[in-house]
Amino acid sequence: MRFSTQLIHNASTIDSATGAASPPIHHASTFHQSPYSDKPQTFVYSRSKNPTRSILEETIAELEGGIAGFAFGSGMAAIAAVFTLFSSGDHLIVTRDLYGGTQQILKQLGERYGLKVTYVDMTDLQQVTAHIGSRTRAIYVETPSNPTLTITDLRAVSSIAKSHNLLTIADDTFMTPYLQRPLELGFDIVVHSATKFLAGHSDVIAGLAIVKSPDLKTQLEQVQVTWGGILGPDDSWLTLRGIKTLGVRMDRAQQNALQLAAYLDNHPRVSHVYYPGLSHHPGHALQQEQARGPGAVLSFELPPALTVHEFVSRLRYAIFAVSLGGVETIVSHPASMSHAKMTSDARQAIGVTDQLLRVSVGIEAIEDLIEDFEQALNH
Ligand SMILES: *Cc1c(COP(=O)(O)O)cnc(C)c1O
């Protein structure tokens, strides 16, 4: 079965009890236990297992090529659950331009629970190797990274990790399994903010974690049921519905992003466009090799003569907001949004200037998007 077919024909396709073509939303918190049966029951209490959530968990495990998936109340809850696998004194090596929320968790885990973290430029594999010590337990990667879209070699990181017996974790939010499957490239754990492209309609907050080994499955099962940050049945259903159209949405959004990136790249007043789909992007070839496409997120430097306020207030279609991966185009300002908690110097060091805008390209008609950017840039 090809991946596009798998998006439609998976654990969610037909309800085994009724034949319904859309999975039922099971609100039950508890399930009747047959008093005289010694068979273990699949469903006992919805914090440990809920039928609607289970369908989502099976579906994402299948799509990522893992053996088990876990659905949480947000991307951050999924990421936090994965970090509970580590102990005080353990050391992690992490992508430098990491999602802001993940940096905040790591800061708290460092200050209060003694987890050690080193941020590295993950595109420089020598830096990765140089920081591995006796307490290093894992390498945590985001590729493409946010917001400058640097590309990390997933196979190479996995092979470095294997030779030092380290776990590898990838946040695959920007790509989704439609474009990139880190478990197939040797990674152990994948995490997602399903809020973004997977659910795809800016109408749900959800997180997922997928693992490849029975040992990690057992560990995360315990974390999910005891810490309890589970995804509810309605949001599980919305995420499942989003996944069915992931392929067509991604194809269209990516096609639009390629055209918008080319337009901005040729614009005389735009000095820099960050997008792995452009041939001058340093990670262009690597991205082509390890993923099925460059995705639908790009960043660019607004011309110095134009303020962010002037530009975004002239845009007619794109909304100005945090988040990404919706059907609508979303323009964000990393310096005042996702990276606001960093110092100005730390932001400059990773290329997050005050004029940098990130665009999550939606599925509108590209002619309208380009016309809109044109009038806002040239006003
Ligand atoms: C949004 C996002 C998260 C956090 O997910 P939530 O669903 O907002 O909790 C984590 N990683 C990346 C890359 C994100 O874009």
Automatic annotation (TrEMBL):
Swiss-Prot/TrEMBL cofactor(s): pyridoxal 5'-phosphate
Any GO molecular function: cysteine-S-conjugate beta-lyase activity
PROSITE patterns membership: CYS_MET_METAB_PP (PS00868)
Highest taxon, organism lineage: Bacteria
GO biological process entries: methionine biosynthetic process; transsulfuration
Residues with the N6-(pyridoxal phosphate)lysine modification: K196
InterPro entries named in the record: Cys/Met-Metab_PyrdxlP-dep_enz, Cys_met_metab_PP, PyrdxlP-dep_Trfase, PyrdxlP-dep_Trfase_major, PyrdxlP-dep_Trfase_small
Transmembrane segment boundaries: none
EC number, UniProt record: 4.4.1.13
Annotated keywords: Amino-acid biosynthesis, Lyase, Methionine biosynthesis, Pyridoxal phosphate, Transferase
Gene Ontology CC: one annotated term: cytoplasm
PANTHER family reported in the protein's UniProt record: CYSTATHIONINE BETA-LYASE, TRANS-SULFURATION ENZYME FAMILY MEMBER
Family: Belongs to the trans-sulfuration enzymes family.
Protein name (record): cysteine-S-conjugate beta-lyase
Provenance organism: Sulfobacillus benefaciens
